[in-house]
Amino acid sequence: MEKQVLWHIRAATGKAYPNLKLDYPWVQICDIVVRLGPKTISKVALWTIPNQGSIKINTNGSYIDHNDKAGIGGIARDCNGDFVFTFTIPVQCQNHNIAEALAAQYASQWINDNNHRFWEDATFSHCYREANKVADFLAKLVITLDEPVLYHSLNQMPGG
After folding, report:
1. Contacts of 16 (CB under 8 A, 6+ apart)
2. Which of 33, 69, 86, 125 is a Cys-bridge partner for 151, taking CB atoms 3.0 to 4.6 Å apart?
3. Where does the record place the RNase H type-1 domain (predicted)?
4. In the chain, where the domains are located
5. Which DSSP string corresponds to 38-54?
6. Rounded CA separation 155/8 (Å)
7. For residue range 75-128, what is the model confidence (pLDDT) as tens digits?
8. Rounded to an integer, what distance in angstroms lies between the CA atom of residue 86 and that of residue 139?
């Protein structure tokens, strides 16, 4: 049995690592195979406030395949982390990547429409869902909506 397992290990590792020779005792081979396995890396994802005088708009897009519903959501906060506005808007699209792009486009249009000078210092970056929970919630809230909703105070927002 050990020889059969060893043969399968050599065959599998030989494809991924053609220069790897497994001419070692069984215990060493097991150790090598364990070290070749995938490594789990954990990262802490936290929301951070924007620079002084800036507004940060976190956006997200959601696409629900089984019912073809899609939506965008986002929240704007100032340099103190205080609420500026949020949005949740149903959209038409074919996948979540397009929904994500539409959310960023909406935020960009809001900056233009409100005559903000932020384009001078605008930056775009990705953050993980864990640091973007409000925007994620707002984008998914669209499954309960038929029309766009803008919230201009925290009291208007649904719980979640």
Report:
1. 36
2. 86
3. 58-104
4. 2-36, 55-156
5. PPP--------PPPTT-
6. 62
7. 988 889 898 889 999 999 999 999 999 999 999 888 888 766 655 666 677 788
8. 11
Q: How far is CA 101 from CA 64, 73, 89, 105, 130, in A?
A: 16, 11, 13, 6, 19
pTM here is 0.68
What DSSP assignment string belongs to the chain?
-HHHHHHHHHHHHHHH-TT----S-HHHHHHHHHHHSPPP--------PPPTT-EEEEEEEEEEGGGTEEEEEEEEEETTS-EEEEEEEEE--SSHHHHHHHHHHHHHHHHHHTT-GGGGG-------GGG-HHHHHHHHGGGG-SS-EEESSGGGSPP-
